[in-house]
Write a structure and sequence with these properties.
The chain has 20 helices and 15 strands. A nine-stranded mixed β-sheet has the order 5-4-6-7-3-12-13-14-15, sandwiched between helices. It has a two-stranded antiparallel sheet with strand order 1-2. A two-stranded antiparallel ribbon has the order 8-11.
């Protein structure tokens, strides 16, 4: 029950001091006291049943009072009940979001980046994550409906705030340049957290004070994975080499605490929290021939049916045999490996919540360039919205000499970039692959969708600021 003070800080634990040590020893949490039968808890902790009942009743009343549904004040209860009975129109009118200053991108995002939630922006290096974040730092200063008329807090774990790039966007973006009042760099507070300890201290103690003092409406963490990788993934981190399992368990616990902290900040202060996340390569084997059983297993997945696509399975788990006749006429058995991956396994399900691997008809290049957002499934459950930025190379004619390859390598002409919504509480997912994703380019004025540039009469030449 070590989480009782975190769930109910004002709960009078002194009255139940005799019970708490036994409950902690048997790992009875506050959730257990609220959901499990009192008889089961008493047997598990070896405590008197009547005292357990009194404790459970006191905790339930404290939770109800904290939620405002059992305050004893009729006026307060009426106010709380009215807030819970809001109509759909009331909910729509209270909706606030930060615009990306691009109609196509905002349309895919359901209006922009919502307040009250954790939004993750994930993609490989050079995909445009920081460029998106810089646009949000400026657009949040605009009045509604494009912004929230507030300031922004930029927390970096890798490098300082690129003020030169922000100034360039202010000069060249038509919306920012013509805004009145015009966004300014003075309304952006930046801080660098070089390690996990300083990051936790800043988020837990300094950020809440800064939100109230400076009227912050957007908190950006760029990036969330950097300090965790440095702390837990280096060889021998946290102890003797070989204790990777203990390190991963500790990291998972820290990620859950971070997620709860950021969610509380977003919900209690009605602000938007946006975190950038890195990605790692996803390695998978490919069987020779896909069997009917594999297709049935894939089709049985509810996620596959919802997205309308059947990506190729990647884990060979069984094989079939057949015979072919060679030139001598002698039947020769040949074994083909088939893929019958469990549709409920993580390897299969992650295609629909990572942003990569859900294309029903993948090209050779896309199937070899699969990525997975860092920090694993634990962190995925902490965020409300995941936005994936995908980039793919475009090759030109000709070959470049390569010492390791006699045939040479193809000439890289440019990169194409897409934005897709993987999951979100306020808008549906973009869908499998990049067919319905929004293609964008990085220009001097910021991030612009290709369709929006064509609509505005801007020539789309593929010359991004990023190579």
């Amino acid at each position: 029950m070590t989480d009782l003070t975190a769930v109910l800080p004002g709960f009078p634990t002194q009255q139940y001091a005799r019970l708490i040590p036994s409950l902690e020893k048997n790992q009875v949490t506050t959730a257990d006291l609220l959901t499990l039968d009192c008889v089961e808890i008493a047997k598990r902790a070896q405590l008197p049943l009547l005292e357990i009942k009194r404790l459970c009743k006191a905790i339930l009343e404290a939770v109800q009072t904290d939620l405002g549904v059992n305050t004893g004040n009729e006026a307060q209860q009426t106010k709380t009940s009215a807030s819970l009975r809001r109509t759909g129109k009331d909910v729509v009118n209270s909706w606030n979001a930060i615009s990306t200053l691009d109609d196509q991108l905002d349309l895919a995002l359901g209006g922009g980046i919502p307040v009250g939630y954790i939004t993750e922006l994930t993609g490989e290096s050079g995909a445009g994550k920081t460029q998106f974040l810089l646009t949000l730092l400026l657009s949040v200063q605009l009045p509604s409906p494009q912004g929230l008329s507030g300031t922004a807090l930029y927390i970096s774990t890798e490098s300082a705030l690129p003020t030169t790039r922000l100034s360039q966007q202010l000069r060249y973006h038509p919306v920012l340049h013509s805004a009145d009042p015009k966004p300014t760099l003075d309304a952006i507070i930046s801080i660098v957290t070089p390690d996990l300890e300083s990051q936790d201290h800043i988020l837990r103690y300094q950020v809440p004070v800064a939100i109230r003092q400076y009227g912050i409406r957007l908190v950006v963490l760029d990036s969330v994975a950097a300090n965790y990788r440095a702390e837990f993934e280096r060889q021998g981190a946290g102890g003797v080499i070989g204790q990777s399992g203990a390190n991963m368990a500790q990291r998972s616990s820290e990620l859950v605490k971070l997620g709860q902290l950021l969610r509380d900040l977003a919900r209690e202060n009605n602000i938007a929290v946006v975190v950038a996340n890195q990605v790692a390569d996803r390695f998978s084997g490919h069987g020779g021939i896909s069997s009917i059983g594999s297709q049935r297993a894939t089709q049985s997945s509810p996620l596959a049916r919802r997205n309308g696509g059947i990506p190729p399975s990647s884990t060979p788990t069984s094989s079939i045999s057949t015979t072919v006749e060679l030139g001598s006429g002698t039947p020769t058995p040949i074994s083909f490996t088939t893929s019958t991956i469990d549709p409920m396994s993580l390897d299969h399900q992650q295609r629909w919540f990572t942003g990569w691997g859900d294309d029903p008809h993948p090209s050779y290049l896309s199937s070899k360039n699969l990525k997975t957002p860092s920090l694993g499934l634990i962190w995925t459950t902490q965020v409300a919205c995941r936005i994936a930025l995908i980039k793919r190379p475009v090759y030109g004619p000709g070959l470049v000499a390569d010492e390791g390859n006699e045939r040479g390598e193809a000439v890289l002409k440019r990169w194409r970039r897409w934005m897709k919504v993987v999951f979100a509480p306020h808008v549906g997912p973009t869908g499998p692959g990049v067919e319905r994703a929004v293609e964008f380019e990085i220009r001097s004025e910021g991030v612009r969708s290709v369709k929006q540039q064509a609509k505005d009469g801007v020539e789309v030449d593929g010359n991004d600021l990023l190579p």
